[in-house]
Design brief:
The chain is α+β, with helices and mostly antiparallel strands. It has three helices and seven strands; from the N terminus they run H-E-E-H-E-E-E-E-E-H.
Length: 201
């Protein structure tokens, strides 16, 4: 009887080396889809909030003497059925989905819905490592994983690292837009030439 155990084990090892990365990518794709659904639910919740407040978006937060006690997600929480939608299943950080800081010019008066020129292209939310996010090179571009406050100014062409906090889904991240739709995108939406998307222009 031929001894096939040695060859069988090698075949299994080869198949495992081939299939494990495929399975890992499939699992991440599933997490990406779940996160995308979370973005859409949060975008619709934020728009529902705006309808109740004279079509004005929620502010980034309430900053009193440098201390933030209430963030945007506290304000829209009554409009979501499950608070798990605030969390990206692929994230390891405390903050997983960021609100476009330009919506309320950081701590200023938030924009009304009518101020967004191209709602289907104007960013509302995206994967982040902070509760607020901005295009690269902006005041808080570092919040998306672009570096530190001392280095962000040099990142005018987008994220410096493929493994940055914002790019946690297959070298890209999920975005939600002002018309309520959500989609995955490569990091080009963070590039400074696309800053109009963040400014509501």
């Amino acid at each position: 009887m031929p001894k096939t155990g040695f060859f069988d084990s090698h075949i299994i090892a080869i198949l495992a080396a081939i299939l494990f990365p495929v399975f890992a990518k499939a699992r991440e794709k599933a997490r990406q889809s779940s996160c995308l659904a979370n973005h859409k639910q949060l975008a619709l919740a934020a728009l529902a909030y705006a309808q109740d407040y004279d079509e004005r978006m929620a502010p980034e937060g309430h900053n009193i003497a440098g201390s933030v006690s209430i963030w945007w997600y506290h304000m829209i929480e009554p409009y979501v059925k499950n608070t798990q939608v605030f969390t990206c299943p692929s994230a390891t950080s405390a903050w997983t989905i960021g609100y476009n800081a330009q919506i309320s010019s950081y701590w200023g008066t938030p924009k009304s819905l009518g101020e967004f020129v191209r709602p289907s292209e104007n960013v509302m939310l995206c994967d982040s490592s902070a509760p607020r996010v901005d295009y690269a090179g902006g005041c808080y571009g570092c919040c998306a994983g672009f570096g530190t406050s001392a280095t962000r100014a040099s990142y005018t062409n987008g994220p410096p690292l493929a493994g940055s906090a914002a790019l946690r889904h297959n070298d890209g991240c999920n975005f939600a837009f002002m018309d309520g739709h959500a989609k995955w995108s490569k990091p080009n939406l963070f590039y400074v030439p696309d800053r109009w998307r963040w400014l509501g222009q």
